[in-house]
Write a structure and sequence with these properties.
By secondary structure, the protein is mainly α. The protein is about 75% helix and about 0% strand. It is built from 17 helices and four strands. Strand 1 and strand 2 form a beta hairpin. The two termini are about 20 Å apart.
Length: about 500
C-alpha cells in the first residue's frame, strides 16, 4: 500500500520501467485494462444471468433452477482456475494463456447473444472456461512486473490492479444491465462480448510491455507427458460423448443431467485436493499441520461464499419480484444492484487498510482467526437484515431498495474482513511443494460454497426456496455459529498453524 507513485522512484532495471503507469511498470496498464474489460464483460453478463433465466422473454425457468444454474456457473469459474494455472505452467505460459482465455470469453459472450437455448448454455461453458484460464494467470503476470517481493512498489501495483477489477464490475451493470433489461437481453450479452474484445485487443497491442518471464512455461511437459495427457483427455471426452449421446438419444436428457454432475464435482474436487496434500509423504509434519489448520479456514470460507454469492442470485431474483427498485420515486433496473458491492469495495478498502495499520501500531490489530470469525458473523448478519424485506414482502408489500443496499453493505464489510485475510493466510500456510496450487485451493472454497447452493436450490435435489424466511434465518444462524466456532477453537487452530500468525 505504501508504494511511491512518482516517476523518480522507477528503477531502470524493472521490466517496462521505461514508460510508467502512475509510477509503475508500463505493463501494469496493459494488465489493468485487460482485467477491467474482462470484469466488465463478466459482471455485466452475471448481473443479467439470473434475470434472463426467469424472464418470460428469456428462458422462463423457475427461480430454483435459475439459482442452480447461476451457482453452478460461478462455481465452475473458480473450479477451472486450477486447470487454468496448470495449462500456463505446463503448456503455454501465462501470456499466451491469457490471450487464449480472452478469445474464449469473447466467443462465449457471442454465443450468449444468439437467441437459442443451446447456444446460450454453450456460451456459459465457454465463458467459465475462459474465466478460469484468465483468473489463474493474470495476477501472476502482475507479480512478474516487479523485482520480487522486495520491490517497494509491488503492493501498490496490486492495489491499482484491484481497482481495475472493481471499476469494471461497477460500470458493467449500468451499461450491460440497462441494455439487457430495457432493450434486449441478447444485445446486453453482445455488449459483454464487445467489452472483452476491447480488452483482448489492447492486451495484444500492449503485451510488449509485459515481463519476458510471463512468456516462460515454468515446467513444460515432456513429449511422453503430452502424449499421456492427450490420451487421457480423449478417453474422458469419448466417455462423456458416448454417455450423453445415449442419454440424449433415448430421450431422457434434461438440464439436470449436466447440472447435478457439475455440482457434485464442485464438492468432491476440493476434498480430493486437500486430501492429496494430507497424504503426501513428501510434506514435513509441520506442513501437514498447517494444511489441517487451513481446513478450518477453508470450511469457514465455503460457508461465507455460499451466502455471499447469493447476492447475485437469491437477492437479485427477490429484488425483481418483491422490491420497489426506486430511489426518491426514480426507478432503476434490477441489475444495478450488482454495482453496489464494487463501489463499496473501492470506497472501504482503503479505510480497512488504514484501520489494520493503525491498530497494528498500537498492538491491537485482530489476529487472522478473529478477522475470519468476524467476516463469518457479518455475512450471517447480512441475512438477518434480509429477514426484514422478506417479512415486508410476505405481508403483501414491496420492500424498499434501501433494505437491499443495507444487505450488500454488510456483506461488503464482511468480504473486506475475510477475503484479503484468506488470500494472505493461504500464501503463508501453503506447503513449499504446493506454493502455487494453494491459491487454487482458496478459489475452491468459492466452488464448494456455490455447489452447496446449487444442490439446495435445484428442484430435482434439494428443492429449497432460498428466499423464504425460515431458510434465510437458518443460513444466517449457520454463518454466525461457524464464526463463533472458529473463534472458540482459535487456540487449537493457532497451534496447528505453527509459526504462521
Amino acid at each position: 500500500m505504501a508504494s511511491s507513485l512518482t516517476k523518480d522512484s522507477v528503477r531502470p532495471d524493472t521490466p517496462g520501467s521505461e514508460k510508467t503507469f502512475f509510477g509503475h511498470p508500463r505493463g501494469l496498464a496493459t494488465l489493468f485494462m485487460t482485467e477491467m474489460w474482462e470484469r466488465f464483460s463478466y459482471y455485466g453478463m452475471r448481473a443479467l444471468l439470473p434475470l434472463y433465466l426467469v424472464a418470460p422473454g428469456g428462458l422462463h425457468l423457475n427461480a430454483g433452477t435459475a439459482t442452480a444454474i447461476y451457482s453452478v456457473y460461478v462455481s465452475l469459474v473458480y473450479l477451472l482456475a486450477l486447470p487454468g494455472g496448470w495449462v500456463a505452467d505446463r503448456f503455454l505460459g501465462p501470456r499466451k494463456t491469457v490471450a487464449v482465455a480472452g478469445l474464449i470469453i469473447m466467443l462465449g459472450h457471442l454465443c450468449l447473444a444468439l437467441p437459442a437455448a443451446a447456444s446460450f448454455f454453450v456460451g456459459l461453458g465457454l465463458v467459465a472456461i475462459g474465466s478460469g484460464l484468465l483468473k489463474a494467470n493474470i495476477s501472476t503476470m502482475v507479480g512478474h512486473l516487479y523485482k520480487g517481493p522486495e520491490d517497494p512498489r509491488r503492493d501498490g501495483g496490486f492495489t491499482l490492479f484491484y481497482i481495475g477489477i472493481n471499476m469494471g464490475a461497477f460500470v458493467a451493470p449500468f451499461a450491460i444491465g440497462t441494455v439487457g433489461e430495457n432493450v434486449n437481453w441478447h444485445l446486453g450479452f453482445a455488449m459483454a462480448a464487445l467489452g472483452m474484445a476491447l480488452g483482448l485487443a489492447q492486451y495484444l497491442l500492449g503485451s510488449r510491455h509485459l515481463s519476458e518471464q510471463s512468456s516462460v512455461v515454468p515446467t513444460p511437459l515432456t513429449a511422453q507427458e503430452k502424449a499421456a495427457t492427450l490420451r487421457k483427455g480423449l478417453i474422458w471426452l469419448a466417455v462423456a460423448v458416448v454417455f450423453y449421446g445415449l442419454v440424449g438419444g433415448t430421450g431422457h436428457f434434461t438440464l439436470n443431467w449436466a447440472l447435478i454432475p457439475l455440482t457434485v464435482i464442485g464438492l468432491i474436487v476440493p476434498i480430493l485436493v486437500i486430501g492429496r496434500m494430507l497424504r503426501d509423504k513428501d510434506l514435513e509434519p509441520a506442513e501437514k499441520s498447517k494444511v489441517r489448520a487451513y481446513i478450518w479456514f477453508f470450511a469457514a470460507a465455503a460457508v461465507f461464499w455460499m451466502i455471499y454469492d447469493q447476492g447475485g442470485s437469491t437477492l437479485s431474483l427477490f429484488a425483481s419480484s418483491s422490491a420497489k427498485n426506486t430511489i426518491l420515486g426514480w426507478g432503476f433496473p434490477v441489475s444495478w444492484y450488482q454495482s453496489v458491492n464494487p463501489v463499496m469495495v473501492m470506497t472501504l478498502a482503503p479505510v480497512f487498510a488504514w484501520l489494520w495499520l493503525w491498530l497494528n501500531r498500537r498492538g491491537k490489530e485482530p489476529s487472522t482467526i478473529v478477522k475470519f470469525a468476524s467476516g463469518l458473523i457479518l455475512i450471517g448478519a447480512s441475512f438477518f437484515v434480509f429477514l426484514a424485506p422478506l417479512s415486508i414482502a410476505e405481508g403483501g408489500h414491496k420492500a424498499a431498495a434501501m433494505w437491499l443496499a443495507a444487505i450488500y453493505f454488510v456483506q461488503t464489510v464482511g468480504e473486506l474482513t475475510l477475503s484479503p485475510v484468506g488470500l494472505s493466510v493461504t500464501t503463508k500456510m501453503a506447503p513449499r511443494k504446493y506454493a502455487s496450487q494453494m491459491m487454487g485451493v482458496w478459489f475452491l472454497a468459492v466452488t464448494a460454497g456455490d455447489s452447496i447452493t446449487a444442490l439446495l436450490s435445484n428442484p430435482a435435489v434439494g428443492g429449497v426456496n432460498l428466499d423464504k424466511t425460515g431458510f434465510v434465518a437458518l443460513e444466517a444462524v449457520l454463518a454466525v455459529i461457524a464464526g463463533v466456532a472458529v473463534w472458540m477453537f482459535r487456540n487449537k487452530v493457532n497451534k496447528l498453524m505453527g509459526d504462521v500468525h
